[in-house]
Structures are given as structure tokens and as C-alpha cells.
Fold:
Amino acid sequence: EFKGSTVVELMKKEGTTLGLTVSGGIDKDGKPRVSNLRQGGIAARSDQLDVGDYIKAVNGINLAKFRHDEIISLLKNVGERVVLEVEYELPPVSVQGSSVIFRTVEVTLHKEGNTFGFVIRGRWRLENRTNRYSWRICQ
Structure:
């Protein structure tokens, strides 16, 4: 089983929600995970989260020992800046006898400000399940 991880930073206005539903917790069915993304919500518009992603921490607070109600309360009262540490499953890579295509693409970017202003993300589909590819960025 291959896993990837990322940090997702979301900004929301006071009184609004992130637009995601979380299941899990130590009193439920295991690790906290995204079970729904509301279309048009902040989390969905970020294009950095998927249903099935595990939420490891919120603003540096590890969720491993949190009950479901504690996780929900934390997410509701988190404030305007939300930093989520997220883990997700990657598809197994089988090279021999597979239809995997390896491709190298060179792109030149001109940085403006502190970021390049985009998110790199890949997908694959198997029986209507969507997962991310692993990407490697080289300087």
C-alpha cells in the first residue's frame, strides 16, 4: 500500500464552513477521513482534497486520539486560516506487463511573488474510484 501526504491551507470567512464532511475518529470507524466535499465549497474549490483523504492534523493538532465529535467541533471553530495535514492512498505501480506510461515533460516557469500560482495533481480511474498520481518536481 502506497501513501502520499500533503499540507492543505484553506482560508475561510468567519461564520462559513469548509464544505466538507468528515467521518471517523477513535470512537467511530478509524482514522478521520473526508467523506464528502460540498460542490462549490471552499474545500472542493481548493482542488487539493478528495473523498477518502485521511486528515492527520488540523492547525498542527494531531487527530489520532480525537473522538468524532471533537474533530467536528475543532473544524467548526478553527478560525479563518485552516492548515490540514492530509494523507492519501496512491495506486500501486506495476511496470512489467502493465500499461503504465512514463513521460518526462520539461516546463519553464517564471515565479511571481511567493508562489507559482497553481497546483499539480494527477488522477487515475479504476472502477469509478479516483486517486492521485505521485508527481516529482525537479529543479
In short: The longest strand covers residues 2-11. The two ends are 28 Å apart (CA to CA).
